Each structure stands twice: as C-alpha cells, then as structure tokens.
Amino acid sequence: MKKFIETIKNIWSIEDLRNRILTTLLLVLIYRVGSYIALPGIDANALSNFEKNSNQGILGLVNMFAGGSFSRASIFALGIMPYISASIAIQLLTIAVPYFQKLQKEGESGRKKINQYTRILTVVVTGFQASAYVAYLRNQSGGAIIPEYGTFFFWLSTTIVLTAGTLFVMWLGEKITDKGIGNGTSIIIMMGILARLPQALIGEFSAKVAGAGGPILFLIEIAVFIMITVGLILLVQGTRKIPVNYAKRIVGNKQYGGVRQFIPLKVNAAGVMPIIFAQAIMFIPATAIGFATNSESASSFVRIFSDHTNGWYNLIYAVLVIVFTYFYTALIFNPTQMADEMKRNNGFIPGVKPGKATADYIGAVMDRITLPGAFFLAIVGIMPGLAAAFKINSNFATFFGGTSLLIMVGVILDTLQQIESQLLMRHYDGLMSTGRIKGRTAPANA
C-alpha cells in the first residue's frame, strides 16, 4: 500500500503527466455527459421500451460500443462506431489497393492523407447509419417517440445532429490521444463499457443475496471473473520473440549494427476483431430466416442463433472466432515486408537465409503461435454464454469474456504502459516492482 501511495505521488508530481491525466478525465466526462442528452424532439418518457429492445442482438453490441447512448436516443447514439468502421475499411484498402499502400510508406505525410480519407469516409458512413437509426426509431416505437410536426424535418435534423455528434466524439478521441494519456478511441469505448459494470455488479449481488446461493456464490463468481481476467492478460501480453542479428558496418570511425534484437510476434495479433466479426455473422442467419418464414424448423434454427447459451450456438461461434483470427491475422501481418526490411537493414535471423526463407520462417512461427491464441480467444468469446447458462445475470455475464472484457483489459494495459513509460523516463520507479508492464504493442527490442 505504501508503494502504491508513493507511485500516485510520483505521478501527481510530474506536471506533464498530471495535466495529461486530468485532460483525459475531463474529455471522458464530456463524452459521458453528452451520452445522456436526448436528440431534439424525442419524447424521453416513451424511451423505456425502446431501451429494452435496443439491448438485444447485434444492436446490443452497437449499444455497448456507444456506452448506452444508442438505447437512450442520445446525440452520441452512434458513438465512435462509424469512425471505427471507416478506419477498418481504410486499413483493408492499404492492404489491397496500391495507392493506399504507397501512402502508407510515405511516412508522416502519407499518414495525414490516410487520416483525411478516414474522416471523409466517417462522414459518409455516419450519414447512412443516421438515416437507418431514424427509421429504426420510427419502427420500434410505432412513432411514439417521434415528433408529429414533420417526418422529413425530424429525419434531416436528426441526421445532422447524429453526424455532428459522431464527429465530435471522434475529435474527443483524437484530443485524448494528442493531449491526454492512452489511445483516445479505445478509452472512449472502454469507458462506455466500464460504465455498465457497477450496475451489473449490484444487480448480480442483489440477485444472489435474494436467491439460494447467497453471498458465498457471489464471491465464487468474482473469483472466477478474476481468474478469467488474469488469463486474458496473459493472452494480450503473450509474445514469441524471434532473435535478429544485425551485421556490423563501419562508416568512417563509427561502427553501426553488430547488435542483437528481437521481433515480438503476438499470440493474439488480431485483438478483438475476430470476436466482433463472429458476433456480426451469428446475427445474420437468424435475422434473414426470421424475415423469410415462420415455419417450425425455421423457428428452431432461429432459436439456435439467438440463444447464446445454446451448445450449437457456442460451437459455431467458437469455430467462427478461430477462422476469423487466422483471417484477420493474415490481413494485418505481412512476413514478406518484415523480411525485406530486415534485409535492407542488414539484419538476419540466425540459421535462416535472408529473403524468402526468412519470410517463410516468420510466417510459419506466426501460424504456430496463432493456433493456441485462436483457441483461447474462442474460449473467451463463449464465456459470457457459459456464464449466462449458469444463471448469472445477463448484464454481469457479458463481463466474463467476449468483447467487453477483452477491450477493457487491452486498453487498461496500454494506458498503464504509457504512464509507466512517463515515470521511467523521469527516473522514477515503474508501476510494477517485478518488471515493466507490457501493453498490446511491445517495443521492438522487447
């Protein structure tokens, strides 16, 4: 405890770090306040049924990323999701389109152009999603929460407000990244998820005290939750280090190279994306068949894909997570490019020839370590369904794994890593006495 208090004092004594943390907290507070401001013209008294329907299926996933703003018909109802969708689309274009590949290699100027394209695409995506959201408000409420003074005017004003709200949230995320601590977009998402945790804990505790299990069963659930969190930390931090030697070069009177470094290949390079993709795919069959027919066989099929406690649902979901883990890792990981950069800098892996042999070796190592990472990620993905099957409150069960816990663990580790880097840079002790905290992005020589 004494070490913890001393560390807090050290953090507070560093003016730049203190200002960054306070700036982050202020901007997050602005976002959370805005998430409770309803859209102009919305009847707030008629939102109760709408909130209940918006917490189910894929809309529940959207609502989670929006920090509950989606179900509250807030000015931030779409949250940061359009920006994330645009970022993923641009990221895929940098892999498939030569023009964007060229921009990516141009350094700072190329990065600025890519960011500009991302912002433009965000406006387009937000416009489409805002229009769909207005239609969803009308269909779900039967017009009860929509004002009567003009459908077109409400559609136009709401689309403009939602687009402006998403752009403002995007701006908040960029300001947190520049002036605050941590990745702004990730912190905004994490805070929206974290805001639901106290209510979920209170609801689960009340249910267990009123039931037969009592507080002992609640403590067992908390212990299991902590164990899952520890396992997830190991997954996020897990790396396979490949040694790389650099040949010595003498230029004038100076010697360059001749050092040994490591390439840290992450066990879970795909992050949370496979779970998000798998969740989106799992909602498609039930939605399509539900609209197509009402037969008994179709109804049983829909139940499989809509009940996350069903065994078949969890099996199919786990397989999809494993498949998408390999797919997304293949998209973002380029062993050929890594081998070319090593060859250009006179680097080589001991016992492996430079060039294609090096690329094949790195790719083979990545394939081997991705397999256990994919299986563990699949287990993490189905844990909320298993928790709900054991009669855990649905709100609290979502924190037993899946997207919520993975994002929280990853973002918290990244933020703590940045705080620790600031401390070590000023010759203070780090946050951990046993070693440095490693986030999702390890240093090149780690």
Automatic annotation (TrEMBL):
Compartments it resides in: Cell membrane; Membrane
Gene3D superfamilies assigned to the protein according to its UniProt record, in alphabetical order: SecY subunit domain
Keywords: Cell membrane, Membrane, Protein transport, Translocation, Transmembrane, Transmembrane helix, Transport
Alphabetized SUPFAM superfamilies for the sequence: Preprotein translocase SecY subunit
A Pfam family annotated for this UniProt entry: SecY
Membrane topology: Multi-pass membrane protein
Residue stretches spanning the membrane: 21-39, 75-100, 120-137, 149-172, 184-202, 214-236, 270-292, 312-334, 369-390, 396-416
Subunit structure: Component of the Sec protein translocase complex. Heterotrimer consisting of SecY, SecE and SecG subunits. The heterotrimers can form oligomers, although 1 heterotrimer is thought to be able to translocate proteins. Interacts with the ribosome. Interacts with SecDF, and other proteins may be involved. Interacts with SecA.
Described function: The central subunit of the protein translocation channel SecYEG. Consists of two halves formed by TMs 1-5 and 6-10. These two domains form a lateral gate at the front which open onto the bilayer between TMs 2 and 7, and are clamped together by SecE at the back. The channel is closed by both a pore ring composed of hydrophobic SecY resides and a short helix (helix 2A) on the extracellular side of the membrane which forms a plug. The plug probably moves laterally to allow the channel to open. The ring and the pore may move independently.
HAMAP family, alphabetized: SecY
UniProt similarity note: Belongs to the SecY/SEC61-alpha family.
Protein's UniProt name: Protein translocase subunit SecY
Lineage: Bacteria, Pseudomonadati, Bacteroidota, Chitinophagia, Chitinophagales
